Amino acid sequence: MEFSSKIIEQAVDAFAQLPGVGKKTALRFVLHIIKQEKSEVDKFGSLISRLKTDLKFCLRCFNISENEICEICANPVRDASIICVVQDYRDILAIEKTGLYKGHYHVLGGLISPMEGIGPSNLNIESLVEKLKDNSVAEIILALNATMEGETTSFYIFRKIAPYNVKLSAIARGIAVGDELEYADEVTLGRSITNRVPFDSSFKK
Q1: How many separate domains does the chain show?
Q2: Which of 10, 12, 40, 97 gives 20 to 30 Å between its CA and that of 200?
Q3: For residue 42, is it within any domain?
C-alpha cells in the first residue's frame, strides 16, 4: 500500500497495531480523523492519553477505575460476601449488563496458559486467597471462559481455596464449551449466573 504522506503511513501503522484492525480498516480510521474538526481530534487524542494517565486498577478487585476503589466495590448496596472471579474488565461489563448480579468481583488479569508463558504467579490469585482469611467471604463464583485455559485456572483456584470455609460455585454451562463470556447474550449469561452450580459438580461434568 503506497501512501502520499509519511504521517498518514505512520498513523495507519499505529492503528493497524490494534487487535482485529487491518491496514484497510486503519486507513479508514485515519481518513475519518482527517475530515474531523481540530477540536474533535484534540479531544480524541486527549482521551487516548488519559487511558494511560488517569486510569488505575482498583485496590480491592483489580477492576479498571478512575479511583483507588472502583464504584462497584465502593457501593454499599453490593454484597461483599459474594465474589465473582473473572478474567478481565470485559467480563465485568458483560455480567453487569445482565443486571442480575449484585456481589463484588475479582479480576484475575488473564488465565493460566503455559503455551503463552502465563502461570499462576502472573495472575491475581494470591490476593483472592487473602480475601478469605478473615472469613468475610461466603461464596466465590468462578465465571471464567469455557476453554482449556479457563478450566485449568478454575481448577487451580479450586485447589488453592480448598482449605477455607467458603462455598465455591461456577456459572451454569449455558455458556457453550469454547465460548467467551464477552460474546454471550445477556439472557444466557444472566441465567448462567443465577443458576450457578457447585464447582466440583461442574468440573465432573
Answers
A1: 2
A2: 97
A3: yes
